[in-house]
Amino acid sequence: MTMTVSTTATWAQRRTLFALFLVSTFNYIDRTILSLLQIPIKRELGLSDGQMGALTGLAFAIFYTTLSLPVARIADRGNRRWLIVASLLIWSTMTACSGLAAGFATLVFFRIGVAIGESGSIPASVSLIADFYPAQRRASAMATWGLALPTGLMLGYAGTGWLEERFGWRIAFALVGGAGVLLAPLVFALIREPGRPAATGEAEPALSFRQSVLYLWRSPAYRLAVGGCTLHAFSQYALMTWNAPFFVRNHGLSMPQVALLMALLSGFAGAAGMYLGGFAADRLSQRDIRWRVWMMALVIAVYVPATLIELLAPSLALSIAMATLVAAVSIAYYGPVLSVTQSLVPTNLRAMCNAVLLLVFNLFGLGLGPWLVGLTSDQLTAHFGAGENGLRYALSLSLLTSLASVAVLMLCAQAYRKEIAAKAKTVAGS
Questions:
Q1: With CB atoms 3.0 to 4.6 Å apart as the test, which of 57, 160, 291, 397 could cross-link to 284 if both were Cys?
Q2: Are 182 and 57 in contact (CB under 8 A)?
Q3: Is residue 98 within 8 Å of residue 177, measured between CB atoms?
Q4: d(CA 409, CA 296)
Q5: What is the rounded average pLDDT of the residues 420-429?
């Protein structure tokens, strides 16, 4: 009987993790599709660069991140399975409808719908994974689920261009969104909602919004983990946004060449870094729990000089080689940071914990990183004679935030060890 229970639990873990991976993959595909289709959209609808920037950057980040807080409250109290499926249906429907856009206003409306849908998926998914997997296996599980990021980017880069070339941008939106709608019944069948006390063995009392925020704020390790990774997100999102234009401007690659390069970097190097970061954090933390945080600091410390070489190397071959390393280490912290933050909160705060992380992370990283680097590039070009090197130097300057994040995360490691030790004493004494 013990054998049967163990096998059933393992199958439930794997099928739920697989379903969440599929959902998250479509999340990143749908988030990527607009940026890839902006050229034909701008041409047909007569939009400006500023309007397209508002759709893909700060405006999307504001709706996506702020809505994740109230939705996370629902996830911490309600059925996460239904919430994830409903989120998938909403953003997929809105993506499909984006092909009907007649101008900027209607496109904004549909993209807000996508942001609303996507705001409910990640906090609920992280909460489910944290309930299914114990702390010593959680970083690996989070990293496995996080492989959806490079997978979604790779499929987005490679597939969307192919669809647009053959069917046009409107049909491309309809096909990608329609595929997400068809995926919803499968996701509902695969996901199992575990009992809320699964991870702790006892029910947790419900917390008000104010109590939830205060709980998170009173954790120095949580504040430092969020702050450190947010600083890195500034340069990470800037590089993700401007990497393709950099290779076109500074190394003369054509658009088909750079699209293939970005797909390969995101899909293979990014996937390897994502998984290995979580796997290594779990293994090394068995020796010293601080390795869950040290792993984040280590990969970001490698990211800074590797990115600098990529940006400043005169040789295309060397720049691509460094870009491959950068693609791996830039997101290798993803599994560990989710594992660290989830281990600091009770089960009834897991979705809220992730929503706050996303709020700060995306507003500062996705919202400000690409925009401020673009403004800096314009200023360097217009007033300092940087020419085509304006973007190269602006991206190089953004690395200062990643350098600062390493120092913050080193402080976080000490605070994390103290809080986990205190938490263990509290559990042992109860």
A1: 291
A2: no
A3: yes
A4: 7
A5: 76
Helix pair angle (334-343, 291-312), 10° resolution? 150
Residue 162, both tokens = 């192919």
Residue 189 CB: number of other CB atoms within 10 A? 11
User: Model pTM?
Assistant: 0.76
Cα distances from 421 to residues 100, 182, 227, 424, 429, in angstroms, run 55, 46, 22, 5, 12
Structure tokens at 176: 């990608």
Question: Where is pLDDT greater, at 54 or 191?
Answer: 191
Q: What is the distance of C-alpha 379 from the center of its chain?
A: 29
d(CA 179, CA 185): 11
> d(Cα 206, Cα 98) in Å, to the nearest integer?
39
Q: Give the 3-state DSSP-derived string for the chain, with helices as H, strands as E and coil as C.
A: CHHHHHHHHHHHHHHHHHHHHHHHHHHHHHHHHHHHCHHHHHHHHCCCHHHHHHHHCHHHHHHHHHHHHHHHHHHHHCCHHHHHHHHHHHHHHHHHHHHHCCCHHHHHHHHHHHHHHHCCHHHHHHHHHHHHCCHHHHHHHHHHHHCHHHHHHHHHHHHHHHHHHHHCHHHHHHHHHHHHHHHHHHHHHHCCCCCHHHCCCCCCCCCCHHHHHHHHHCCHHHHHHHHHHHHHHHHHHHHHHHHHHHHHHHHCCCHHHHHHHHHHHHHHHHHHHHHHHHHHHHHHHCCCCCHHHHHHHHHHHHHHHHHHHHHHCCCHHHHHHHHHHHHHHCCCCHHHHHHHHHHCCCHHHHHHHHHHHHHHHHHHHHHHHHHHHHHHHHHHHHHCCCHHHHHHHHHHHHHHHHHHHHHHHHHHHHHHHHHHHHHHHHHHHC
Residues 296-334 have pLDDT tens digits of: 999 999 999 999 999 999 999 999 999 999 999 998 998
CATH for 16-193+209-429?
A: 1.20.1250.20
For residues 217 and 220, give the distance between their C-alpha atoms in angstroms, rounded to a whole number.
Answer: 7
Burial 322-331 (b: 16+ CB within 10 A, else e): bbbbbbbbbb
Name the nearest CA neighbour of 185 among 315, 92, 55, 75: 92
Would you call 397 exposed, middle or buried from its count of C-beta atoms within 10 A (0-12, 13-18, 19+)? middle
Give me the long-range contacts of 379-382 (CB less than 8 A, separation at least 24): none
Q: Of 80-89, 143-152, 239-248, 250-259, which one has max mean pLDDT?
A: 80-89
